[in-house]
Amino acid sequence: MIRSALSYPSKKNLVLQCLRRMSSLVSTSVSEVHPGVAHVTMHSPPVNSLSLSFCQELSQNLQVIHKDKSIDIILLQSDIPGIFSAGLDIKEFTQPKERLMEFWTAFQQLYIDLYGASQTTIACMEGSAPAAGCMLALSCDYRVMTSNTKAKIGLNESLLGIAAPPWLAQQMMDTVGSRVAELSLWRGTLYAPEQALAIGLVDELHENPRERALELAVAEFQKIPRQARAASKTLTRQKRLKHFHQERQADLEHFVNFITQDAVQTQLRGYLQQLAAKKNKK
Ligand SMILES: CC/C=C\CC/C=C/CC(=O)SCCNC(=O)CCNC(=O)[C@H](O)C(C)(C)COP(=O)(O)OP(=O)(O)OC[C@H]1O[C@@H](n2cnc3c(N)ncnc32)[C@H](O)[C@@H]1OP(=O)(O)O
């Protein structure tokens, strides 16, 4: 059974407790029965889209965990049925320039906090993870997805008239290989769980991803010395992170210049209308 951090009297848990109270979109809890495992739960209805405040809250939760030496595993999960995350909040793309810059900076920071976490991270996907939802999963060390065929995962940005940023495209290439990533990116393919497993976009399918992730964390991952896991991550990720920091400002400027183009804005409005029309048809 998972108990909230609220039930812990230690200093560490007081910090988590404060965070939980402050945060309405993301919360962290630690398991009494499984020490060292933190559950970071996204709950921003209807679809966990990554708005500015959502990115900031998720980052804050991760930053508190990073400082907590007693936690060595992070399970990233959603409590919205059928949804992991719908990716970036498309409404943010229509905001004025200053807000766009703040938004993209927060999204970049979220990538740093999740991809650069020293803890072992597991994405527990009980539902769909398009675009930046897929980025959250790709930033984790291990991905367990529901076997429910209604769920989809992938980088579908091209269908919105935009392209994934280079560092996200790189994550896809690192995970599934250049050729499959190349095809997926321009087609905007969203994969069903079995297809995602076949190309290596996810590591396992399970009817209960949270239960399986916890089992993996305790029975397998925690048996590997923590410092060895952290050092292995540094080996494989530090080059990407260094490059990201060097390019961060250019990435921000490119995003703002790209997204504010009239043609892109028209396309995005059309996509939002399509989503609304789909909902009305249900
Ligand atoms: C140089 C780089 C430049 C640019 C890079 C930009 C990078 C972008 C990365 C991204 O993440 S773009 C976002 C891409 N995301 C999507 O395309 C997902 C769209 N959503 C869906 O496919 C579906 O909503 C879903 C499969 C996630 C869930 O389906 P369902 O449960 O049937 O829900 P509804 O479709 O009815 O949606 C409910 C509600 O939520 C709104 N919504 C959905 N997704 C988003 C979103 N990403 N942002 C904002 N709002 C979203 C949808 O419009 C409905 O709103 P209502 O007001 O009608 O309730």
TrEMBL record:
- Check the record and name the InterPro entries matching this protein: ClpP/crotonase-like_dom_sf, Enoyl-CoA_hyd/isom_CS, Enoyl-CoA_hydra/iso
* Gene Ontology annotations for the cellular component aspect, listed alphabetically: mitochondrial matrix
List the SUPFAM superfamilies hit by this protein, alphabetically: ClpP/crotonase
Q: Which Pfam families match?
A: ECH_1
Entries under Gene3D superfamilies matching the protein = 2-enoyl-CoA Hydratase, Chain A, domain 1, 6.10.250.170
For this protein, the record's CDD domains field holds: crotonase-like (cd06558)
Does this UniProt record's set of keywords contain Isomerase? yes
Q: Which PANTHER family match?
A: ENOYL-COA DELTA ISOMERASE 1, MITOCHONDRIAL, ENOYL-COA HYDRATASE-RELATED
In Swiss-Prot or TrEMBL terms, this protein is called Enoyl-CoA delta isomerase 1, mitochondrial
- Recorded source organism is Fistulifera solaris (Oleaginous diatom)
